Amino acid sequence: KDGYIKSVDDLLTKYIPELKGSAYSKVTIKQLLTMTTGIKWNENYTDPEADIVKFYTHPIDSGIDETVSYMRHLQAETEPGKKWVYKTGETHLLGVLVRAATGKSLSEYLSQKIWKPYGMEGKATWNLGRTNQEFAGCCLQMKLRDFGRFGQFILDSAKINGKPVVPDDWLQAATHTQVPLWPGWGYGYQWWTFDNGIFRALGIHGQMIHIDPARQLVIVVTSAWPEAESYARQLAADNFVKAISTELDKEKSLQKNK
């Protein structure tokens, strides 16, 4: 919206020249947003040799951002746009992109564009890496109610005092399926999407922002699961969301019939 980035079809190297000559040299911003870069990555949280583990301890190239230093050494396994693989490192790389384009830290830009104007209740903190930059794919701490406010901000079409913060067509693309994954599930621009119009932000250890535009509903769940991922615990969270949705439907039905 601010014009720092011209198009999601731009190559990453236009904004992050340190990626030139790497497997990311042919990757567009849109492919990074949808995690269809074709870059090989292991997100297994229990594997000590996984990229998601080695990322935080790898030796950093001199004078290079920590994220770029690791990501530019990765290899491609297919052409960009051909395959979806979830990669936290690529969300980190989106953070580098925003910093490079705006010339501002993620905390500064978030505070300026959303946090203060939307009226968040409390302060937030964001973990910094070894090169003193925020990790875009991780570790943003805020009050539960402010997680809810962020969900409401998105539900309200990312507008503040009636004025849009993002381009008019952004949320339509971001919160709807760009990459079909499993029956009923897909992936947008960093959002998990569903065929019924619901979309979610999901994090390891049970974090969730559930947004249901049809019901005008935002549900936030923060958790401390002992494991990063759990089908049983996620199913319990899903049943919790279904229970709220069902009761809300009943209430609306009663009001309609009065």
Specify the helix fraction band. 25-40%
Beta strand count: 10
* Count of runs of 4 or more consecutive helical residues: 8
Oligomer: single chain
Order of helices and strands: HHHHHEEHEEHEEEEEEH
Description:
- The protein is an alpha+beta fold.
- 34% of the residues lie in helices and 13% in strands.
- The protein contains 8 helices and 10 strands.
- The protein has helices at 29-33, 51-54, 66-71, 88-102, 106-118, 144-155, 170-174, 231-257; strands at 125-126, 140-141, 159-160, 163-164, 179-182, 185-187, 192-194, 199-203, 207-212, 217-221.
- A 6-stranded antiparallel sheet has the order 5-6-7-8-9-10, sandwiched between helices. Strands 1-2 form a two-stranded antiparallel ribbon. It has a two-stranded antiparallel sheet with strand order 3-4.
- Strand 9 and strand 10 (217-221) form a beta hairpin.
- The longest helix is centred in the C-terminal third of the chain and has 27 residues, at 231-257.
Features:
10 strands, two-stranded antiparallel ribbon, 258 residues, alpha+beta
Question: How would you concisely characterize the structure shown here?
Answer:
Strands 5-6-7-8-9-10 form a six-stranded antiparallel sheet, with helices on both faces. Strands 1-2 form a two-stranded antiparallel ribbon. A two-stranded antiparallel ribbon has the order 3-4. The chain has eight helices and ten strands.
Topology (SSEs and partners):
Blueprint: H1 29-33, H2 51-54, H3 66-71, H4 88-102, H5 106-118, E1 125-126, E2 140-141, H6 144-155, E3 159-160, E4 163-164, H7 170-174, E5 179-182, E6 185-187, E7 192-194, E8 199-203, E9 207-212, E10 217-221, H8 231-257
Antiparallel strand pairs: 1-2, 3-4, 5-6, 6-7, 7-8, 8-9, 9-10
